[in-house]
């Protein structure tokens, strides 16, 4: 399923051409052509009686906004969606047909089973924010992304390679969200450098499979505008000196793993970036088991009397952790 298909389903869901929106016969002034131009008033400013089969823009807007109305905002309706519906009442020509492409500056398609970012997305020539979280996307062809994009969120997909995304990346992108994917880099091609993302301010790589801290830092250090970085959930985050090494290696970073970096922390880890011998390919993990359910508790078993010939039953358990 493509992004374009999900986009048109989203537009149909908004009902921009259905009552009380759009250019229908219910709009006063011959189908809405005069909406916003003195509709429903005479030259002297006196209100005219509306025909029985037409409604004024004010009445139609009230139907959209009243939470008791059948056309009230839907539970998943974003502020932009509501704005589009209101625009379809006040100036329906702007959202009629292909004109709707020029309206969208933000598009959120979450959990819709999207697998392909197709070239139809290029029709959204004003798009600045694209959120495609919780879909089934494994590859993104960057040539199909609008050049105007500043915010791209691909959290919870199946992305395992950045080659296609970095072929022609949006030049003004400021946030790239790739958390909860299948990335294993950094790759030899160095796709996380300023050569591809010169304006990147925020980068989310959390809960992937990055293991090479030194290699990753060598790439991220080229991102001169990077201020927010999320790497928690990767195997490399288990390295004992992980946070200190990053804080000292990326002096312009302001937030790491959602925790602000203060001056005291900077001073505490000063010089750690030069001690690469501390970055070992091993980690220590301490696991504390708070409670186990569904197995017998030996302390509740009845104590056997001395000399009893009753059979003794011994239970043993094995707990396995997979990393």
Automatic annotation (TrEMBL):
<keyword id="KW-0433">Leucine-rich repeat</keyword>
<keyword id="KW-0677">Repeat</keyword>
<protein>
    <submittedName>
        <fullName>Leucine-rich repeat-containing protein 43</fullName>
    </submittedName>
</protein>
<dbReference type="Pfam" id="PF00560">
    <property type="entry name" value="LRR_1"/>
</dbReference>
<dbReference type="InterPro" id="IPR032675">
    <property type="entry name" value="LRR_dom_sf"/>
</dbReference>
<dbReference type="GO" id="GO:0005737">
    <property type="term" value="C:cytoplasm"/>
</dbReference>
<dbReference type="InterPro" id="IPR001611">
    <property type="entry name" value="Leu-rich_rpt"/>
</dbReference>
